[in-house]
Amino acid sequence: MNGGKCIAQVIVDVPTKATDRPFDYLVPESLRGEVRIGCRVKVPFGPRKVLGYVVDLKDEAETPRLKAILDVLDFVPPLTPELVQLGFFMADEYLCHTMTALASMVPAVLKGTYAKVVSLGPEASAETDSLIDLPAVPLFARLRENKECSWDEALDAVGGDARLLRRLAEAGRIRVEERIGDRVTRQKVMWVWPKQSRDELNRTLERLSGRAKRQKEVLRYFAKQPEAIPLPTLLAELRVARSTVQKLVEMGALAWEEREEYRDPFKHRSFQPTEPLPLTREQAAALTAIVKPIHERRYHSVLLQGVTGSGKTEVYLQAIAETLNQGREAIVLVPEISLTPQMVERFKGRFGDQVAVLHSGLSSGERFDEWRKIRRGEVKVAIGARSAIFAPFKQIGLIIIDEEHESSYKQEENPKYHAREVAAWRARHHGATLVLGSATPSLETHYLADSGTLERVVLRERVHGRPFPVVTIVDMREELRKGNRTMFSGTLKEELLACVERGEQAVLFLNRRGFSTFVMCRECGETLMCPHCDISLTYHQTNRTVRCHYCGYAERVPKECPSCQSPHIRHFGTGTQRVEEELVRRFPGIRVIRMDVDTTSRKGAHERLLTSFGEGKADVLLGTQMIAKGLDFPKVTLVGVIAADTMLHLPDFRAAERTFQLLTQVSGRAGRHEKPGKVIIQTYSAEHYSIELAASHQTEAFYRQESFMRKQHAYPPYCSLFTILLSHPDQVTVMRASQEMARVIQRGMPAECQLLGPVPAPIPRLKDRYRLQMLVKYQAERGDGDRLKPLLKEAVAMFDDPDLRISVDRDAGELMQPVRGDRFTLWAERK
After folding, report:
1. Three-point CA angle 409, 435, 648, nearest 5°
2. DSSP code, position 818
3. Which of 333, 371, 441, 816 is deepest in the core (most CB within 10 A)?
4. What are the strands of the beta sheet with 48-58, ordered from one edge?
5. CB burial of residue 546 (10 Å; 0-12, 13-18, 19+)
6. Is the peptide bond before 716 cis (omega within 30 degrees of 0)?
7. Of the given ranges (3-17, 134-148, 239-253, 334-348), which has the lowest mean pLDDT?
8. Where are the beta strands (DSSP E) in 317-416?
9. What whole-number distance in Å separates Cα of residue 621 and Cα of residue 341?
10. Long-range contacts of 711-720 (CB under 8 A, 24+ apart)
11. Is the separation of the CB atoms in 44 and 67 below 8 Å?
12. Given the DSSP bridges, would you call strands 620-623 and 505-509 parallel, antiparallel or unpaired?
């Protein structure tokens, strides 16, 4: 073991304030080759045996009497030493347990009940086993008889020598795999090959009886093609039974063995290889700014602010190629699963099998295999959503965050990290370049670029000098005055008809799913509300139900009002299902593909729907914000925004910024190729600066206006925030707790800081829990955040009510949006 160190520092999986520190454990002699930083171990903790992560190794303990580690769960540690350091940073920065931070970086498939299983490896040989390692002979005999055994049984067979087992595994003479419950974490496939020469196969063929037709067919196949082949492929090609092959194996003509095989989510797809494209002058300057620090191996951050269609992705691809040429690795983050298919196609086309894909649209087994390729150094590029930032690379040279302004980069559950901050930490650690790409960067990133903290590189022109789409704002109040009460303005109807008649395609955007937003009684005005949350239920036409999009509650639509029993109950507002129905009704024969959470919940749905649209199987792509960015279809010449002010009037200081970004991004889907594009924005707030400036492509004017508003009201980037959310089943209890907590914070915080609240959260009740919210404004550059963190931890820890949940979020992405499923976690959780 490293330098003979025999003390391991372990973070145990016991989430309380008192245990959120490393504990010393003795590494027994038998495990000294296995215990390494980043591996998971089983340790005694009080009367229990618990899981823990090894975070350090040392020579001396602080106390003379130590308990010993019981077992090591991982043959290869799932966390690198760098990721362990990152875990400590995240625990401190985002006020969560260190264990929570460490566990968030490990694939979910590794978090179940765990066992190690030993079987014969590809290099095992009956002729040489007894000559090389006499102590291992009993183990080989056991494995040849029983095919496999547990790790403990293997240890017994070699006299408890774990180092010998590790040596045999590294030599390929045994295989060690992890099993989780009754699932094998590795996929295995039986391979078959001829054990005899071609002449011997022909002689065996002649000796077979005339009735053994299937066996003869198999032998003829291998006489012509003597290479190894997967058994399922052989059975499918020759249409023979497994028993036929098994008889030939028993006869000694063939041999077979199980081999590990990666689950490939893209095995049914072929990717056309691509070559680097010639760069424009602006693109070449951007590439130089990114690549220069990579060659110098120093940390550098770049804001790549490029208008939609300016070719940011090609700059990414060529920067990654330079990174790989330097023998280093790259991570690319995208905000939505819906972006991944097109991005994967471009990255796989350029870098082939060097790319691993990590996102929630894959099965857990596929994600695990992609992660293992990274951990083993078999790939050099990782592309995925937020959690791909934890890809266990060891030589990172470049991290790219595409559409960096997106709120999906902020984790909603503990640890409440922002991928941008984690990326900056990792880039500094590796001396790598961090690229933040966006047509509409977040105001915070724009501010950092203005102050010189980031280098800003601007792409002002679209590729090939293509013009921006012509944008028309339609005031829906005027449409109402004209008597048009439909969801489609006259302008949008005309343009949509013309677009379809020309054989072109349109994208219609609405940031709501469902059929309508609420169901109301026209007699008494009663709205159907969720019985568990203070939010109206959304009507879904498909199965005529009303659903809560926060807790999942659903019920059939009542035939009469529950309050006054009136039969005049109907749905109001507009959702994606209703827009689809109206499109089909008002434009007979139009072909529509709808993309929202309801239609894309199944595995592979994003890719299937986008592929169908790309192949021209629909005239209109209708969807929520998952279609607003990153998509590139040559035939799309019209974009229609059904209701531009959906998010504009939410109680969130980022509402105007989100609206501007979304309109700019969705407008950028039109006219990206030869044909010019048009954009129709329908709104009831036509005079709002975010809508006017998005329509006229005045990005810098918007940032000036929005910065003025933020500075006037002291919101980020002119201050930083802690958001504190308390919830409890009893309203009075949570009110008292929040007032007591506010007094403690007010008394202890720096004088320059400001506490707002407690006030009811934007959704005051969620899943039968009453919710109150507080904001603490502070100046990070003065060090106020570091002084506030221990105060907030102390304030949370002073409550001992197990039903009281307290969430502390640093620089929350959206004040309006609750944590999904209300899974709030305490910094100091009581058990």
Report:
1. 45
2. P
3. 333
4. 23-26, 7-12, 48-58, 40-45, 71-72
5. buried
6. no
7. 334-348
8. 329-333, 355-358, 381-384, 396-402
9. 16
10. 713/653, 714/754, 714/777, 715/653, 715/777, 716/443, 716/444, 716/653, 716/811, 717/443, 717/444, 717/447, 717/448, 719/777, 719/778, 719/779, 720/777, 720/778, 720/779, 720/780, 720/784, 720/785, 720/810, 720/811
11. yes
12. parallel
> Tell me, what DSSP letter sits at residue 626?
G
- Rounded-to-integer distance, Cα 330 and Cα 389, Å: 10
pLDDT value of residue 229? 86
694, 663 in Cβ contact below 8 A?
A: yes
For the chain, what is the radius of gyration of the CA atoms? 31
Using the 8-state DSSP alphabet, how is residue 339 labeled?
G
Q: Is 624 exposed, middle or buried (0-12, 13-18, 19+ CB in 10 A)?
A: buried
Mean pLDDT of 707-731: 93
The pair of structure tokens assigned to 215 is: 């066996």
Label residue 582 by pLDDT band (50, 70, 90): confident
Please say whether the beta carbons of 69 and 43 come within 8 A.
yes
| Under 8 Å between Cβ of 75 and 169 | yes
- 566 CB contacts (<8 Å, ≥6 apart)? 521, 522, 523, 524, 560
Pairing of strands 470-475, 254-260: unpaired
Give residue for tokens 């679209």: 462
Picking from 331, 328, 325, the residue whose alpha carbon sits closest to that of residue 358 is: 331
Copy the structure tokens of residue 338.
């819906």
Angstrom distances, CA of residue 523 to CA of 520, 561, 563, 569, 657 = 9, 9, 10, 8, 38
For residues 18-34, average pLDDT: 86
Type and span of the H or E element at 49:
strand 48-58
Tokens found for residue 248: 């030939």
| Residue reference for tokens 């969705």 | 666
Residues composing the chain: 831
- Tell me the C-alpha distance between 397 and 516, whole Å: 47
Going by C-beta distance under 8 Å and a sequence separation of 6 or more, which residues neighbour residue 736?
Answer: none
Q: Report how far residue 573's alpha carbon sits from residue 514's, in angstroms, rounded to the nearest whole number.
A: 10
Mean pLDDT in residue range 569-587: 80
CA distance 210 to 81: 64
Q: Token pair for residue 18?
A: 């008192």
User: Tokens standing for 214?
Assistant: 């299937």
Return the C-alpha torsion angle 319, 324, 327, 329, nearest 10: 80
Q: What is the mean pLDDT of residues 696-707?
A: 94
Residue 465 Rama label (left phi>0; alpha psi -120 to 50; beta): left
Can you give the pTM of this predicted structure?
0.81
